[in-house]
Amino acid sequence: MKTWQELRAEALKASEIRNKLISMGHGYVGEFREGFAPVHDNDNYYHVDANNNPAYSRRFKFVGPFSNGTAPAKDELGWFHIYPDGSDVYSQRSRDGCNRNFLSVAIKANQAGEEGFTLVVAIAQ
């Protein structure tokens, strides 16, 4: 478990990175988490790393910050979640968005190649 000093240092670093990205001219820069921040440029949303490098080539109508390895995203078909490489966590889309009674469940293969799985559940009401 991290101490409050370690957590504070991480938060200050994330804030510093976000301010740097804002100064680079993005129309919007979201919260920097798990190595990426959501940004908005020219009617497109995507994620960038601390050096302003895009995490993937896809562009979306909206993306949120990463949490536990996935981020909310919206494309022309609706709302869903993506991995840091921009690939879909699952293929289903919700037209209601993550704001109203949206329940999506995805089973993510263990990226270490070990037996088992990680259950990713996103619920918003």
List keywords for this structure.
125 residues, 32% strand, globular, 3-stranded antiparallel β-sheet, 16% helix
Summarize it.
The chain is of the alpha+beta class and about 120 residues long. The protein contains 1 helix and 8 strands; from the N terminus they run H-E-E-E-E-E-E-E-E. It has one domain.
What do these coordinates show?
The strands form 3 sheets. A 3-stranded antiparallel β-sheet has the order 1-2-3. Strands 4-5-6 form a 3-stranded antiparallel β-sheet, with no helix packed on it. The longest helix has 20 residues, at 4-23. The protein has one helix at 4-23; strands at 28-29, 37-41, 44-48, 62-63, 71-75, 78-82, 102-109, 117-124. It contains 1 helix and 8 strands. The chain has one domain. The radius of gyration is 15 Å and the shape is globular. Residues 99-119 have low confidence and may be disordered. By secondary structure, the chain is α+β, with helices and mostly antiparallel strands.
Alpha-beta classification:
alpha+beta
Number of domains: 1
Strand content: 25-35%
Sheet with most strands: strand arrangement: 1-2-3
Stretches with pLDDT under 50, minimum 5 residues: 99-119
What shape does the CA trace take? globular
Helix proportion range: 10-25%
Give the termini distance in whole angstroms.
30 Å
Element order, helices and strands? HEEEEEEEE
Mean pLDDT: 82
Question: Helical region count?
Answer: 1
Radius of gyration: 15 Å
Present the secondary structure layout.
Blueprint: H1 4-23, E1 28-29, E2 37-41, E3 44-48, E4 62-63, E5 71-75, E6 78-82, E7 102-109, E8 117-124
Antiparallel strand pairs: 1-2, 2-3, 4-5, 5-6, 7-8
